[in-house]
């Protein structure tokens, strides 16, 4: 089996978790990857500053969609401060697949959208490392 | 590549040609490299690489200025390459051949130096839905600046330009028509001669994007009666340099594009006068090595014969279209008749993002392009955000298309879920 297109990645791509919209979301944010135009929108519902529900919407490649789907699972129950601490390594560990320099952006797009929506952080999670 | 029972195209001896391309001798991810992205840039034969190497080893100097032997050699070769380009597209004079950075800059040169002087409020510019962004955005900028309107000739269900709109959209109000000769996405060959004739009938000038045609088929600017024609050296076996052909009378009447060294005759504190054509449009130090090495690229193509190049690519496209249509679900955008297209095939695989398609191809050593290929309006027309594109050139063999189709089936298999 292909390293990148592992069963788990394909499963999340084809059957994404928390896919859709939250009409009365507390935080909604959409952004795109300028390299490929892929878009992701994330809606977050909070209770006492803890993520009660989260959903994502958008079209993209298997890597970006699987990353979004898996990240949604991780976010439920986390505080906004917990989310701020998530970084590139967290996403790489979560996905567990080898990614080249182009595809790493696909993987990081969902986290970028979350951080931009929650904290207005516009830099890419892998660029924070250089700062 | 299997040597047994090779499938032949009518045009070229591919096995012999491949020997001339050092880059094609390597493996990628343990597989023989299959390069199917020549619409983006072509690989270079040894002769072109040597020509570039020779410049830096033997006569690196600035053209046009020096009186020493090195500079004279560089100038002679640089201007000699220009004359070869002139003959290659059958321009009347070398003065009609302007070196630029790329096709995009060639088109922008026309938009700035011709457009700013000749487009006025209320005028219309007509382009087509098949265009690369480089033949849309310069006209949007110009139209916005001047208060002119930009109109698009539409594409029909077969991926061809709507012929009747050439007549209905190009009218007395039209001052400029910007059209491609061959699409970099659908491969569609346009009725460029008819477009140019229509433009001239209403008194408009026509800018032809020939980036995907000059490298792939015989192009004769005089027989086309093209006013401006833009193309790139790096898409025709040469280095990264662009070319603009312009009719001499039009170029003479235009103001310069970029100002600076080499494009002037005399500079005073309050004004300047301009150099002769074509140097009036070549400000600053040019890409000398790149210009010179165009000579070797054109020699190579001439030796093959552009008729043969076209026949070869037509056969490859026909073979690929036939095989790809057999892969369940694959959607090919553009004409399905190889006579109506160049060797460029963009396609979509249902439920699989083009980046994933391209990634799986890469695992097999196959280079294809994924994205909108700088043609977002055309992708919008097809209801697709992006496609995967395979494009062919003189060094591609039918066996490589077999591998492409095989891998396409593998993509389907991986994503079947």
The CATH architecture designation of the largest domain in chain B is 3-Layer(aba) Sandwich
Instruction: For the record, give the distance between the C-alpha atoms at the N and C termini of chain B, rounded to a whole number.
Output: 31 Å
Largest sheet of chain B: 7 strands, mixed
- What is Rg of chain A? 14 Å
Q: Which percent bin holds the helix content of chain B?
A: 25-40%
Find the CATH topology of the largest domain in chain B. Aspartate Aminotransferase, domain 2
Termini gap of chain A: 37 Å
The side-by-side strand order for the widest beta sheet of chain B comes to 4-10-9-8-7-5-6
Major sheet description of chain A: 3 strands, antiparallel
What would you call the structural class of chain A?
alpha+beta
CATH class of chain A: Alpha Beta
Mean pLDDT of chain A: 88
Oligomer: heterodimer
Per DSSP E runs of 2 or more residues, the count of β-strands of chain B stands at: 17
The DSSP helix count of chain B reads: 14
Structural class of chain B: alpha/beta
Share of helical residues of chain A: 40-55%
Just give the CATH class of the largest domain in chain B.
Answer: Alpha Beta
Largest interface: A-B, 16 and 17 residues
Task: Give the mean pLDDT of chain B.
Answer: 95
Can you walk through the features of this model?
The complex is a heterodimer of chains A (about 130) and B (about 425). By secondary structure, chain A is of the alpha+beta class. Chain A has one domain (about 5-120): Sufe protein. Chain: A (Alpha-Beta Complex). Chain A is built from six helices and three strands; from the N terminus they run H-E-E-E-H-H-H-H-H. In chain A, helix 1 (about 5-15) packs across helix 2 (about 60-75) and helix 2 runs parallel beside helix 5. The mean pLDDT of chain A is about 90. Chain B has about 425 residues and is α/β, with parallel strands linked by helices. Chain B folds into two domains: about 10-40 and about 305-415, Aspartate Aminotransferase, domain 1; about 50-300, Type I PLP-dependent aspartate aminotransferase-like (Major domain) (Aspartate Aminotransferase, domain 2, 3-Layer(aba) Sandwich). A seven-stranded mixed β-sheet of chain B has the order 4-10-9-8-7-5-6, with helices on both faces. In chain B, strands 13-14-17-16 form a four-stranded antiparallel β-sheet, with helices on one face. Chain B has a two-stranded antiparallel sheet with strand order 1-2. In chain B, helix 11 (about 305-325) packs parallel to helix 14 (about 400-415) and helix 12 (about 355-365) packs across helix 14. The two termini of chain B are about 30 Å apart. Mean pLDDT of chain B is about 95; it is low at about 1-5. The interface between A and B is medium-sized, with 16 and 17 residues.
């Amino acid at each position: 089996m292909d390293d990148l297109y592992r069963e788990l990645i394909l499963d999340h791509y084809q059957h994404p978790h928390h896919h859709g919209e939250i009409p009365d979301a507390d935080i909604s944010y959409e952004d795109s990857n300028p390299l490929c135009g892929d878009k992701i929108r994330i809606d977050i519902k909070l209770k006492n500053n803890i993520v009660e529900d989260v959903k994502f919407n958008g079209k993209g490649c298997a890597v970006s969609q699987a990353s979004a789907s898996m990240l949604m699972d991780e976010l439920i129950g986390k505080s906004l401060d917990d989310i701020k601490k998530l970084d590139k390594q967290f996403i790489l560990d979560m996905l567990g697949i080898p990614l080249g320099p182009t595809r790493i952006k696909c993987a990081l797009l969902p986290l970028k959208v979350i951080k931009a929506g929650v904290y207005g952080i516009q830099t890419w999670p892998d660029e924070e490392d250089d700062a | 590549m299997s040597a047994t029972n090779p499938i032949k195209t009518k045009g070229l001896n591919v096995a012999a040609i491949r020997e001339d391309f050092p880059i094609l001798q390597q493996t990628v991810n343990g597989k023989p490299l299959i390069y199917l992205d020549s619409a983006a840039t072509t690989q270079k034969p040894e002769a072109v690489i040597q020509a570039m190497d020779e410049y830096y080893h033997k006569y690196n100097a600035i053209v046009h200025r020096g009186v020493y032997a090195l500079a004279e050699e560089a100038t002679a070769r640089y201007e000699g390459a220009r004359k070869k380009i002139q003959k290659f597209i059958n321009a009347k004079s070398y003065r009609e051949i302007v070196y630029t950075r790329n096709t995009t800059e060639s088109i922008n040169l026309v938009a700035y130096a011709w457009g700013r002087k000749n487009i006025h409020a209320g005028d219309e510019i007509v382009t087509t839905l098949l265009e690369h962004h480089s033949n849309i955005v310069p006209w949007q900028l110009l139209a916005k600046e001047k208060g002119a309107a930009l109109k698009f000739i539409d594409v029909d269900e077969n991926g061809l330009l709507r012929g009747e709109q050439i007549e209905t959209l190009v009218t007395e109000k039209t001052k400029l028509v910007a059209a491609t000769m061959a699409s970099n996405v659908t491969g569609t060959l346009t009725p460029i001669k008819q477009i140019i004739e229509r433009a001239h009938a209403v008194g408009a000038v026509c800018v032809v994007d020939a980036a995907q045609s000059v490298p792939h088929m015989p192009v004769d600017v005089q027989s086309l009666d093209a006013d401006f024609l833009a193309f790139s050296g790096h898409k025709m076996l040469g280095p990264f340099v662009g070319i603009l052909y312009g009719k001499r009378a039009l170029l003479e009447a235009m103001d310069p594009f970029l100002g600076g060294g080499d494009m002037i005759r005399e500079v005073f504190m309050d004004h300047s006068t301009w150099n002769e054509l074509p140097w009036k449009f070549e400000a600053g130090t040019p890409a000398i090595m790149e210009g010179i090495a165009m000579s070797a690229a054109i020699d190579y193509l001439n030796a093959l014969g552009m008729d043969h190049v076209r026949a070869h690519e037509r056969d490859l496209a026909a073979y690929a279209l036939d095989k790809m249509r057999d892969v369940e679900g694959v959607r090919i955008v553009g004409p399905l008749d190889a006579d109506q297209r160049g060797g460029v095939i963009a396609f979509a695989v249902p439920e699989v993002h083009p980046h994933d398609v391209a990634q799986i191809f890469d695992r097999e050593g196959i280079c294809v392009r994924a994205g909108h290929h700088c043609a977002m309006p055309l992708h919008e027309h097809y209801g697709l955000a992006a496609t995967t594109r395979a494009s062919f050139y003189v060094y591609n063999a039918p066996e490589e298309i077999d591998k492409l189709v095989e891998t396409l089936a593998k993509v389907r298999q991986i994503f079947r879920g």
